[in-house]
Amino acid sequence: MRPTRRALLAALCWLGLGIATAFVRELQLPFLIAGGSLVVLALIDVITLMRRAPPTLTRALPQVMAVGERYAVELSLHSDRKERVVVHDHTPESGVAEGLPATLQLLPDRITRWSYHFRPTSRGLLRFPTASVLFTGTLGLLEQERRIGDAADSRVYPNFRRVAAHASVGEAALYQGAQLQRRRGQGTEFHQLREYREGDSPRSVDWKAVARRRQMISREYRSEQNQNVVFLLDCGRRMRAHDGQLSLLDQALDALLLLSYVALRQGDSVGVLTFSGVLRWLPPVRGAGGLQVVLQTIYDLQSSTEPTDFEEGVARLSARQRRRALIVLLTNLNDHDARALTAPLLTLRERHMVLVASLREPELRHQLEQPVLTLDDGMCALSTLGYLDARRAARNQLSAAGIHTLDAEPNALPRQLVEQYLRIKRAGAL
């Protein structure tokens, strides 16, 4: 319990009367009477507040949210008496609430509904604790805050709407269901028998069919379907850097989510393995429900404070993924990674195709765009250029070893990663 403004004003008046009593002795009795009355009135409020039952509250909360989107949360309050209350819902720290607290006039035996808006700013499981209500005593001298309602949880996923915004108008047709044209000819999956054509390889001739039909018959192949795309996701401390409000891990998840969507639409399977932090393994899944499975696996991932250990990630993946796949390593390369990466990735390349997708911090570009006015500005620009050159040399070293590389700023990574995947699919390299 705490005093209201009315109580503080009454106490201030009583204090003023006490000061006057020091000069006018005849005011001593009124001073004591006023003080005693104020205490008695406060005790009455204490008793009424202790006996009063708080209103009941229920919260209507979306069970699933997306980062950055704005949602309405509805509160329903019921009271057995007419009273004026101040309601405050204690929202999670990883979000922004609009419209709190609220002053409501409750009517007896009626449900009062009111809503505010909440925008989550990070992924994961959010816990909404109990709300609180502040109401005053009968005489308005004291007020009491009580917790009401039940705690509730909501899952916050990466924002696929933001991911889809990376797509250009031309790519949008692909997301709506356009399929890559299946290459026929020298693929790895048998498609059909057909008449022999000039230029067909002798290896494609089906001699048993020739004997049965008494004419030349060739076997036709097409690029193998139901291929695997497996993400090797770095969750180490280098992914904790931020681009605006989003961390590099958030941006990497955006790229992972978009490519998963496209690959699943192409009939491929998608798997995920995390390393250098929380270990999660999702064996490749496919089909219409595959994207939801991927979301359930990654939605609450957070970067750790551990250093990135590429050897650990590659070893864990090699033990789990035996079938040939496109391995997409999502990380933030630095200028010293080529030596640590080349050996383990060459081991992966013996069985799989490997693509290293690195997020490049926009701050590097911003530094180069600054005018060079002082010696320190020049040294900073030279240092940035040297760092970028070293990163480029590291990527070139990986490329020379037969490993595909991609280096892009976070906003461009999802689109460029999809384009790289489509090029690989069209080339039939998987």
The SS-based structural class is: alpha+beta
Kindly report the spatial arrangement of strands forming the biggest sheet. Answer: 20-19-16-21-22-23
User: What is the CATH architecture term of the largest domain?
Assistant: 3-Layer(aba) Sandwich
- What is the share of helical residues? 25-40%
Kindly estimate the percentage of residues that lie in beta strands according to DSSP: 25-35%
What is the CATH homologous superfamily assignment of the largest domain?
A: von Willebrand factor, type A domain
> How big is the Rg?
34 Å
- The dominant shape is elongated
Main sheet? 6 strands, mixed
Average pLDDT metric: 84
Residue windows where pLDDT falls under 50 for at least 5 positions:
167-187
Integer count of domains? 3
CATH topology of the largest domain: Rossmann fold
CATH class assignment of the largest domain: Alpha Beta
Enumerate how many helices there are, as a single number.
12
Distance between the termini: 70 Å
By DSSP, the count of extended strands is 23
Topology:
Layout: E1 2-3, H1 5-21, H2 28-51, E2 56-60, E3 64-66, E4 71-79, E5 83-88, E6 95-98, E7 102-106, E8 110-120, E9 124-128, E10 131-136, E11 142-148, E12 152-157, H3 160-164, H4 169-175, E13 184-185, E14 189-195, H5 207-213, E15 217-222, E16 228-234, E17 242-243, E18 246-247, H6 248-265, E19 269-275, E20 281-285, H7 290-298, H8 310-320, E21 326-331, H9 337-349, E22 353-359, H10 362-369, H11 375-400, E23 404-408, H12 413-427
Parallel strand pairs: 3-12, 16-19, 16-21, 21-22, 22-23
Antiparallel strand pairs: 1-11, 2-4, 4-8, 5-7, 5-10, 6-8, 9-12, 10-11, 13-15, 14-15, 17-18, 19-20
Helix pairs in contact: 1-2, 6-7, 6-12, 8-9, 9-11
